[in-house]
Amino acid sequence: MIRLYDTPLLGEPIDMSKEFGRIENTYFMGMRVEEFDPETATGQIRWERYSRKPRLDFGKYTLPFTATESWEFPAYEESPTFPFYLQFVDARTVRIRLATRQSKLEPRHSLMLVEQQLPFSTEWALHQHDAEQTTYISDYGSVTIKYAPWKIEFRDATGKLLTRTHHLADQASILSSDPTPFCFIRSAKDMNRSLAASFALSPGERLYGGGESFLKMDKRGQKFNWFTYDPLSAQTADMYKPIPLLWSNRGYGMFFHHSCPMTCDVGHHFDGANTIYIGEDELDLFFFFGTPKDILSSYTSLTGKSTVPPLWSFGLWMSRITYQSEKEVREVAYQLQEHQIPCDVIHLDTGWFEHDWRCDYQFSSSRFDNAEQMITDLRKQGYRISLWQYPYFMPSNPLYEEIIEKGYAISDGNGYIAGEDAILDFSNPEAVKWYQQKIAGLLHLGVSAIKVDFGESAPIHGSYYSRQQGWKEHNLYPLRYNQAVSEITQKVTGDSIIWARSAWAGSQRYPLHWGGDVENTDNGMAASLRAGMSLGLSGFTFWSHDIGGFVHRSPRELYRRWMPFGMLTSHSRCHGAPPKEPWHYDEEFVEDFRKAVSLKYGLMPYIYTQAVLSAEQGIPLLRPLLLEYPNEPGVWQIEDQYLLGTDLLIAPILEQGTTSRDVYTPSGEWIDYQTGQRYTGSTWHHITEGEIPIIILVRAGSFIPHVPVALSTDAIDWTAVEWCHYPSSESQTQTEHWQIALPIHKHYVWIRGQFIDQQIVVDTTLQSDTLDSTSFNPEEIQKLISQWTYQKYSK
């Protein structure tokens, strides 16, 4: 960022690593374990005092670490001891907490965790305890605490070292500060403590997750901040949705259970070290053992799995910046029907108030004659309404004074609001209640979804009702914001749905989120795909983005290529600078647009079933190949193609002027969905797009359920499900199992069965994870299923 002075700007991400380079700070290295109780896994670590001492050699200055003595009055402890402990949560999960002050490690209430009282697993056993170390083992790995020097080692079930903490004694380079060892600092500015949690990286190791990153999915070599921020771009390291989770291709993951500013240096400054700089006086780390799917399942067991949004949310959302009037909204609905384009949601962005962007939760009386009647009429046509809003209130907003007078705004600690706007304090239960009443009023009008925009700029200098400063509340703000809207929407409508931009760990419980303000370029399209997959590798099952890009008018050729990619993600919204409606281009474009949308609507039984399966497992619906095929070395660097569920491989056309591209096919056999061409697995192929400008491959052996294309999901004929079998060229199997999640009463019922000699056989027992047997009529469902058909794919 360019600036005249080295002064932090309002809302700017905080780089915690800078604190660990300051000569005025005092450094404490974790040197040895003074005592340890193997039965309770608790102990004390001795921290020795160091400083950065200037050193001149051969014409350059460096600041290496050197041991130092205290020169303080009155005399403080030279080398203090502070507590740490291990908690074995389950067979794959270990929690490690350590303090940097003389205080007990008390239980922490956490918005990020779904359970405040975590279990103490009996699946770990004390394996070794002697004067030098203690080792615990489970079926999936081991943890060893070495006493002098103090280290923690993590190994898999075969004994292979996964990673270990970096001690000062491990330094192999000439400079003692490379890499930063596991240490904490005492700031000369305010006496606050911050930690550097440093772990070894192995040659060839790759790390993933970390949030909705627009950069390379493999974080090795990158440096980024876990600090919610509006990047105003999809080409930088800043993130709307930073998530403090990283996991490795070596079979482990780490969740840093903090909300303070953190900075990740993943082999950026020093290739062999992954160092997390934490702006807090303790470490709270969850360490996971297992495959990528194991790690995501364990992480989402702690922080929550995504609920399944309603079926209608998987249809097309039609939007722009912005529909300004009832006449305009009704015209869009008319044109969608006139052009026979399936659609479920019409979204009104910033222009439905009397004054654009002035969020007062009231429809403009001059431009909307009868908003409630409009919503009712559109609902009869199959359309739902989504509305934009945000929690920032400008002085010109009529709600501004009320929010301040009632104490609902974040303050600066001196009796003033923390900025130019009154920013709603979601840590205040009364403010949440007031806000939810405003949202409920819209939902009672018939609105189906609320856009939860912004939320990244909670003031770091603010004072919050929670009695926490912005240092810890800034990153929690999106989580509180997401929760407030999701809960009132669920209460009023029965649907678990929001449309949010910002997020933090735990926000995946409140789907869904979209990728923000992306550029209308090939690079913007590619970055959106990377971001969606990266967020999925951070525990989020559902994700969307602005099809065609947001900032400017979508170039026709780009928009045409982007449409099928956007439709083949979990959720699909056309939004951004006008026009986004296809009829404002040309008739040929309308036809291409309709085909892309119809493609998804025809696949809706498959997409919804895969959505339910993904949510239950805590994995993304849009998933990188490495998640399904982690044992294939070739997939770990692929970030421009993906799997939609288990059986569809999607390769968008990402470059202008091209109609073909290289595609990697994982093990097995793959069939082109549009042309029928077969491809062998575990290799690369150069493939040309089909009639729809995208490449779609089906895993051979799959059974893909289809329905006739309807103009909305409400109109889908579930009696007309057709199972299409894509057989392997070598398959001789006569019996195959199938399953489908059937949406019913805002929930779903699992229906499972077999194909025997091309006949559909249904299991006699219907299963539902959300409904009891009195909530649906099994006989009606059996009658519905009896009309389903089966065919073998041939082309």
Automatic annotation (TrEMBL):
Q: Which SUPFAM superfamilies match?
A: (Trans)glycosidases, Galactose mutarotase-like, Glycosyl hydrolase domain
The reply on keyword Hydrolase is yes
First and last residue of the signal peptide: none
Name the UniProt key words of this record, in alphabetical order: Glycosidase, Hydrolase
Tell me the Gene Ontology biological-process terms attached to this UniProt entry: carbohydrate metabolic process
- Name any one GO molecular function: hydrolase activity, hydrolyzing O-glycosyl compounds
User: Which residue numbers delimit the Glycoside hydrolase family 31 N-terminal domain?
Assistant: 84-265
Which residues does the UniProt record annotate as the domain Glycosyl hydrolase family 31 C-terminal?
A: 618-704
InterPro entries hit by this protein: Gal_mutarotase_sf_dom, GH, Glyco_hydro_31_C, Glyco_hydro_31_N_dom, Glyco_hydro_31_TIM, Glyco_hydro_b
The record's listing under Pfam families reads: Gal_mutarotas_2, Glyco_hydro_31_2nd, Glyco_hydro_31_3rd
Q: Where is the Glycoside hydrolase family 31 TIM barrel domain?
A: 307-610
Family from the record = Belongs to the glycosyl hydrolase 31 family.
Which named protein is this?
Glycoside hydrolase family 31 protein
